[in-house]
C-alpha cells in the first residue's frame, strides 16, 4: 500500500515531511470544496426533480380529467386512461430515482465530508499546536546560558517532553492523512456507482413499461389514420349540407313551422310564444312552448323542468283574442284558469290554434280506443270479494295514488259511465271518474263534488286512505239503489248530454237514492231509549280534566254501543236523565254499551244516523246518511250538542274526520261545553287528528267553559307531540300575520313537520301512541 506521507519522515520532521504535509493539506481543502459543491448540486437536482414529478403528476391528472370528460367517446377515454396510467408509473420510477440519488450522493458524500474530513481537521489543529510548542521548546533550550544549571535542566526536560508528545501526535496525524487518502477513493466511487445503478434501473423500468405499451400505441396510430380519413369525409358532407341549407329561403320564420300529432317523441308542436303573466302588471315574457303528452307546457331554459300550463287539453278550449292591443294573440282556457299567448305572425297563430284543436281531437280518439281495448280485456269478476282482498295487500306496498285507488272494488272503471282506467276522483264522494265525467262534476260545484287528478295532483296520506275506504261500488249502492227499479240505464262513454243529466239527477237531485221511511219512531221514543241506556250506564268520567288522559290508544280507548249513544254526566254538574255528555265517551276499553238500545238505522233521521256512524267509523253508513240529506254539522241536543265531527274524534278515526271535513263539516263548531273537535282531540291525545284539524284551519285560540284552550290542555297533559304542533301552528300564524301573508300555507319547515306528522298518523299510527303508552306505565 502506497502511503501519502511516510512515518519515518514524520519522526525526522524533515523538510520533505513538511512539504508532504503542505501538499496533502491543500489537496484535502480542495477536495472538501469539490465535495461540498457536488452535494449542493445534488440537492438542487433532487429538488428540481421532485418539482418535475409534482408538475408531471398535475399534467397526468389533467389527462385523466380529459378522459373522464370524454366518457361518451370510448376510443379517446380508453387511450387517455391508459396513457395516464403509464405516466403515473413513470412518475413513480422518477420518485424512486431521486430517492436513490439522495441516499447515494447527498447522504453518503455529505457524511464523508462531515465525519472523515472533520477528523482530519481536528488532527491538523492538534499537530499544528504541538509543532508550535516543540519549536518554542527548542528555542528556549537553545537560549539557556551554560552557567545557569537549574534553567538548563528545566529547558532540557521541557524539550524532551515536547518532542515525545510531538512524535505521538505527528504519527496520529500522518495515520489520519493516509486513511483519509485511502478512504476517499472508495467513498466517491461507491456513491457514484450507486447513483448510476439507480439510473440504470430507472431506464430499464421505463423501457419495459413502454415495450408493453408499444403494440397498443401502434394499433392506436393505425386507428388514428382511419379517424383522420373519416373526419375529412364528414367535413365534406357537412360542407355540402351547409351549402344546401344556405340556398333555402329563410326570409320568414313561418317556413320552419310544422306540427305532427304522431311524432315519435310525443311533441306535437313546439316554438317560441309570448305569455302574459298573471300578476298585476300583466307583463309579457317569451318562452319556449310545446304540446306534448296531451299537455301544453313551456320552458325558460332547456334544463328547466317544463311548467305545465294546461294539464289535459281535453278540458280546454282555444280561441282568437282580438280585444287586446297586441297582435296575433290567442287564449287557451281550462276549467281552472286561462292563458293568454302571442305568436310572431298570423300564420303562426293559426298554426298553434290548429295544433291545439287537433291534439284535443286526437286525445279523445285515443282515449276511446283505449277504453274499448280495456273493456274487452276486463274480467267480469272485477268487483268480487277477491279483488277486495287483493286491494288490502296492495295498500301495504308503495304504489302511486292511481294504483292504490284503482285497486279498490269498482274503481277500475268510471263510477258514472263505466269507462275503464279513470284518472280522476271526487274526494268528498270517494269515487273515481273519467275525464269527461270529472268535468261535469266540476260544474256541479264543490259543495256537491270536489274533483282531483289521480296522476297530476299531490295526495295527502289521510285523503288517500279515505279514497281507499269507500269506492265506486260502495257509493253506487247508495246513489244508484233504485236505478234498476226505475228502469233507467246508465249513460255510455261519449254521451255528453246524457251524462250531464244523469250525474245531476244522481248527486244533486238524488233521484236514485232509496227513499225509505226515515224516523218512523217518534222522537220521544228515541229519548226514552237513550235515557234508559244513560241511567243504566252513567259514568263519572265527566269530571275528567285535561291532565287526566285516557289510558288507552286512540283506536281502542273510545267505545260505544251499536246505537252510538254515550253516557255520563256533565263536568261537575248534574244532568237531566235524558242528556248524555260528549265527555261520556272518554271511557276505558271494555266498558262497552248495551247494543240492545240501538235502533235500526232506517228508523233514524239522517242527522242522527250520520252522528252515530261517525263514532262507529262506518264510512258507508255516513255516505248513506249524507245521501239522505243529513246535515254534516247536525248537533245532538241530547248529548251536549256534539256534532258528527266530534263523534269522529271520540271514535278515534282519522279517516272519518277527513271524510266529514271534505263534505263541509265545520272544524270550529263546539259543543255545549265550548269544546270543538280540536279540544276533544287534544284531551284524548289524538295527535293525528290534531294535526289534521290545524291543517284545516281549526281555531286553537278558542277556549272552553273552563277558559282553557287546546295548548293549555296539552301542556297540562304533558303531551309533547301535540304541544309541538300547536305551538308551531301558532308561531306560523303569527309570522304570517306580521308579514301580511294572509291565506299563505306557511314556510317550508312548518309544512315539512306537518307533512311528517300526517304520514305517521296515516301510515305508522303506533309511533304517535307513545304518549298513551307511557301514560299506562304510571
From TrEMBL:
The keyword Plastid does not apply. Residues 379-388, 552-569 have a biased composition (Polar residues). Gene3D superfamilies: Ankyrin repeat-containing domain, Arf GTPase activating protein, Arfaptin homology (AH) domain/BAR domain, Pleckstrin-homology domain (PH domain)/Phosphotyrosine-binding domain (PTB). GTPase-activating protein for the ADP ribosylation factor family. One of its GO terms (molecular function) is GTPase activator activity. SUPFAM superfamilies: Ankyrin repeat, ArfGap/RecO-like zinc finger, BAR/IMD domain-like, PH domain-like. Pfam families: Ank_2 (PF12796), ArfGap (PF01412), BAR_3 (PF16746), PH (PF00169). It comes from the Eukaryota. It is found in: Cell membrane; Endosome membrane. GAP activity stimulated by phosphatidylinositol 4,5-bisphosphate (PIP2) and phosphatidic acid. Residues 266-361 form the PH domain. ANK repeats lie at residues 640-672, 673-705. The keyword Aminoacyl-tRNA synthetase does not apply. Keywords: ANK repeat, Cell membrane, Coiled coil, Endosome, GTPase activation, Membrane, Metal-binding, Repeat, Zinc, Zinc-finger. Residues 117-147, 217-248 form a coiled coil. Residues 371-392, 541-579 are annotated as: Disordered. Residues 399-520 form the Arf-GAP domain. It comes from Molossus molossus (Pallas' mastiff bat). It is a peripheral membrane protein. This is Arf-GAP with coiled-coil, ANK repeat and PH domain-containing protein. PH domain binds phospholipids including phosphatidic acid, phosphatidylinositol 3-phosphate, phosphatidylinositol 3,5-bisphosphate (PIP2) and phosphatidylinositol 3,4,5-trisphosphate (PIP3). May mediate protein binding to PIP2 or PIP3 containing membranes. InterPro entries: ACAP1/2/3-like, AH/BAR_dom_sf, Ankyrin_rpt, Ankyrin_rpt-contain_sf, ARFGAP/RecO, ArfGAP_dom, ArfGAP_dom_sf, BAR_dom. GO terms for cellular component: endosome membrane; plasma membrane.
